[in-house]
Amino acid sequence: VEITYGQTHTPKEATTNFGDVVCNYTSALANAGTYTVTYTVEGTANYAGAKASYIVTINKGQAEIIVNTNTITVTYGTSVILPKATCTFASVACDTLASNLVDVNTYTVTYTVAETVNYYGDTKTLTVVINPLGVNAPTLSGEYTYTGKEQKAILSGFDSSYMTALNNVKTNAG
Questions:
Q1: Which of 39, 90, 129, 130 could be bridged to 14 by S-S, CB 3.0 to 4.6 A?
Q2: pTM of this structure
Q3: Nearest CA-CA partner of 67 in 90, 95, 87
Q4: What is the DSSP letter of 157?
Q5: Which residues 6+ apart lie within 8 Å of 116 measured at CB?
Q6: What pLDDT does 174 receive?
Q7: Neighbours of 111 (CB within 10 A)
Q8: Which DSSP helix (H) or strand (E) runs through 151?
Q9: Whole-Å CA distances, 37 to 5, 14, 58
Q10: Alpha carbon of residue 172 to chain centroid
Q11: Contact, 20 vs 47, CB < 8 A?
Q12: Do residues 170 and 147 make contact, with C-beta atoms less than 8 angstroms apart?
């Protein structure tokens, strides 16, 4: 008899025309493995005893990680939120922290459930792509005429969180 872990096994029914049949089947068939189930009938003055057995094999089940593995694409500066992964019998390990996914790059994130005595492990991966931030070049606003005094250039579209303006104060033309 072959079953998968989590399935129920009911011992075969055994009868005899004399004496009581004793089965050694117990709930010891709890983990994946191979077990022998033995039936015994004690002998009497008129009958010889008898013994019969069969093998029960409980195969490991397959763990299944449930997680959305669609590619995640964000722009640099946007936080990555990794999907939550679950498994029915064990906790799921993730090899990457979302807080480490910050630079422009393509990352592979791996979720894992380790193999146990009753289940084969499972692995799922997803890809995270962080694209460069599209920054528009600032433009010069206004008109500037030589006055002999220091003048500061006014930049339109300047984002100080991503840019630095150098040498934008001049006195002389050019």
A1: 39
A2: 0.67
A3: 87
A4: T
A5: 63, 89, 90
A6: 61
A7: 24
A8: strand 151-152
A9: 17, 12, 13
A10: 63
A11: no
A12: no
Q: How many CB atoms lie within 10 A of CB 64?
A: 14
Residues 27, 10: contact at Cβ < 8 Å?
no
Q: How confident is the chain (174 residues) per 10-residue block, as mean pLDDT?
A: 86 80 74 90 86 91 95 94 92 92 95 95 96 83 80 79 75 70
In the chain, the N- to C-terminal Cα span, in Å, equals: 92
**Structure confidence at residue 160 (pLDDT):** 75
* Assigned token pair, 87: 């498994």
Which position has the token pair 């397959």? 62
Which position has the token pair 């593995």? 69
What is the reported pLDDT for 163? 76
Whats the size of the chain, residue-wise? 174
pLDDT, position 153: 79
